Amino acid sequence: MRPARPWARRAIVALAGATIALPLSIIVYQSFLDAPFFQPTARLSLDAWRFVFADGDFHRSARSTFLLAAGMAAIAVPCGSVLAFLLVRTDLPGRGWLEPAVLVPIFLSPVVLAFGYVVAVGPVGFFTLLIKQAFGGAPWNLYSLASVTVIAGLTHIPHVYLYASATLRSLGADLEEAARIAGANPARVAWSVSLPMVWPAILSSGVLVFFLGFEMFGLPLILGDPEGILVLSTYLYKLTNRLGVPSYQLMAVVAVVIMAIAFPLVWLQRRLLGAAGRYVSLRGKGARQRPLALGPWRWAAFASVLLWLTATVLVPLSGTVLRALVTTWGEGIRLADVLTLDHFRELLEYPNLVRGIVNTLAIGVVGGAVSVACYAAVALASHRWQSRWAKAVDYLVMVPRGMPGLVAGLAFFWLFLFIKPLAPLRSTVFSVWLAYTVVWFAYGMRLISSALLQVGPELEEAGLSVGASPRQVVRSITLPLIRFGLLGSWLLVFLIFVREYSTAVYLLGPGTEVIGSLIVSLWATGAIDLVAALAVVNVVLVGLGLAVALRLGVRMHE
Amino acid sequence: MLIAVSAVRHALAADVTPGTSSDVLAAADKEGKLVIYSTTDSALVQPLLKDFGTLHPKIQVEYNDMNSTELYNRFLSEAAAGSSSDFLWSSAMDLQMKLANDGYAQEYASPEAKSLPQWAVWKNEAFATTFEPIVFVYNKRLLKPEEAPQSHPELVKALKAQPDRFRGKLTSYDPERSGIGFLLITQDARLDPNFPETVRTYGSVGVKLYTSVGAMLERISSGEHLLGFNIFGSYALARQKKDPSLEIVYPKDYTLVMSRIAVVPKAAKHPNAGKAFLDYLISKRGQDLIAKAALFSVRPDVEGETTASALTKKLGGTLKPLPVGPSLLVYLDQAKRLEFLKQWQQAIGTK
To answer: A234 and A224 in contact (C-beta within 8 Å)?
Structure first.
């Protein structure tokens, strides 16, 4: 192994560790107090823990959260893996435009998505009304845990797809070609050859989807609202008012519980990943791969992908867009009578909304790039470093992702408030960017690590043995090899940052507006017209961003 | 020339200018800034802020709107960190009152306060600034005006008469998840002699409970729900202007009146600017604009459709304004609150 320069690595790791650990420790500390930590009357106490564990709603919501997260993973992981295989390895029709299209569900803020579903397929949604007219009844109930799970599972397919496809692309196709020459059919090739090679990516994405299930807030908030279905995050939200005054200690307990569930999962995932060397397959040789012929299944596969896109993108999006263009909707309304563009005109009259749009773009494009640089620095610092430090980072970065965005945002609000040197930055977008970067740390890191995992050690060792310094190796060998992974991460981080909503709620103020938190805030005050218009702007921005990226040749495959 | 113009403008404005003392004004101009935390939509108050700006061009106003829980949280953490906003304006009357009661509010004998009703001012620390009726809202495409219940007993009767028609079609705030909703339902418990029966009836048709008024109005408008109760008249009016499918009922047996309470915090960075804004907000001039924004003026001497005087003419003694005072704090006691929620859950049948 090359000679490490531990001080530089340790500095990067320590800095990242502090940024993650600080908000985390505030929350843990808060859970053992009987009042907000900054109040002079706060005393150490276990009362908050007793209260939460004695509360029936807590146990009910914990059960539904498990069901939701497990169901989500059960849907998203197999579908996402198959989707990746279809798009990367086979002759599926329309791969060129499907490639960006399958990522669209990631762009949509869950709040927007949920709202779109209500307008489209809710009890008086326009699809529901059409179907009622045709068949006399609609067979679904949108406001059930099962619906939330299915929607969440379907909309998280792209998360798995991104991980699996990034890995598949970096894998040589020679093994698959060998299998094909030996007479295996496409399914057999996928199952016996491709799948074992992408296991690490699939497993880690599966664990992430499970996490996201724990953190999910927008979908259960809106779709679970009418039936009173609670998951841990909405239970936490409910706790805000249970005692009349905001009860940080109770919220902190639930946040700690969620993180306590997250830790064993991280450990499990590390065990499953095992010795990464087994999966190295990007060797010092390469051959252009030829797509696998699906034969008669080609169009069937194409239709399934289209069906999925219709259910997760077209249906909710048409709901949102429609809502943005009408003054009212529902039973007994002729849509032609209520069409209007006023909501968009209104949008421009609010300086804070316009600022929110600009800030969102800035955080997505510029902030996203800086975040990827940070993630890459940390990933490279712990890359091929057999040390407890490197292991610690692996575990640490997973933790904030298990922290509900709402709570993470609050913790960062406190940090910026009580750490004096940071105080002037609180009312700038920097605060929002930092919170986003930490909350999505695991996400960005995993993508970069998945790419790094594919780089065979012998390439780096070759560099070292001809006399290159470790820094030169990183710059001239490792970085160029993972450049598509980096570009992909930037794109993904951009999309995630543009869509993020709950983390910025507590940091929202003049100067720190972003579309996501504005939507939450407007939703509460009842300006649904503006919510719908803003949601459409959000979707358009992301669409434009993606178009520009594609135009510039930012591709996630080559 | 310039002096002449400004003198004329001054003379014209003199009779409607808030009576802020010159000391406070001078100090406020020197502070030069005013940070407001509010639960009122910034869109609604733009005219107010603009007008305040013409009166006090030297004071730069920063207006932050957020939900009531967030406002309370944010203020408390900032006060603990030693800096805070200069003006808190929230519809969560109980939380605002708690801040005043816990000693966070600055005492200020506003010269305008004597024009407010007695119930609207507490110890010169907390001031009611609006007069917002709590109403029923229904979808008039799906419920004919003659079918719409006009009081709480009529609502109960309608629900009992046509349980199937109203099943899953009645909506309101969830008192477990919404602080405002809790405050409103505890007032119902005080004012409705048949409260337990009323709640059981709500439960029997499977009332749908939400955390935000926007979600409720949206779903009433779409026809997913027929009727909502305990809805702020101000929001309903604002939505009704753009959306012809909504109709408003002021319940005849009693119409609860809520108010946005203003507090100037002790820890304010720009306390005089905060005081100047308070004077302005409850002055005739400010209240005229409050009425124009359909937030309902609280001052008896302001005329117009959305004012306390107009509502009093229309509804008289059935108006029940919620007095600003420690009675708002009753259910912030944990044990009492949890006990009330337990009974609510049993009556509504969610447990």
So the answer is: yes
Please check whether residue A108 is in contact with residue A539, taking contact to mean a CB–CB distance below 8 angstroms.
Answer: yes
Q: A183: alpha, beta or left, given left = phi > 0 and alpha = psi -120 to 50?
A: left
- Tell me yes or no: is domain A6-278+299-551 CATH 3.40.50.2000: no
Q: pLDDT 10s digit of each residue in chain B, 351 long?
A: 445 444 444 444 445 788 889 999 999 999 999 999 998 877 788 899 999 999 999 999 988 877 787 788 889 888 888 888 999 999 999 999 999 999 999 999 999 999 999 999 999 999 999 999 999 999 999 999 999 999 999 999 999 999 999 999 999 998 988 888 999 999 999 999 999 999 999 999 999 998 888 889 988 998 889 999 999 999 899 888 888 889 999 999 999 999 999 999 999 999 999 999 999 999 999 999 999 999 999 999 999 999 999 999 999 889 999 999 999 999 888 889 989 999 998 998 864
> Looking at CA atoms only, how far is residue B98 from chain A in angstroms?
9
Domain B133-257+329-348 has CATH 3.50.50.60: no
Write out the E strands in B66-177. 87-90, 121-122, 126-128, 132-139, 170-173
Contact between chains at B95 and A237 (C-beta distance less than 8 A): no
| Overall CATH class of domain B15-131+259-306 | alpha beta
Searching chain B, which residue's CA lies closest to the CA of residue A521? Answer: B66
CA-to-CA distance for B158 and A258, rounded, in angstroms? 45
Q: Nearest CA of chain B to the CA of A155: how many Å?
A: 23
ipTM of the complex: 0.75
**Domain boundaries defined on chain A:** 6-278+299-551
The pTM is what? 0.80
User: With contacts defined as CB-CB under 8 Å, which chain B residues touch A506?
Assistant: 70, 73-74
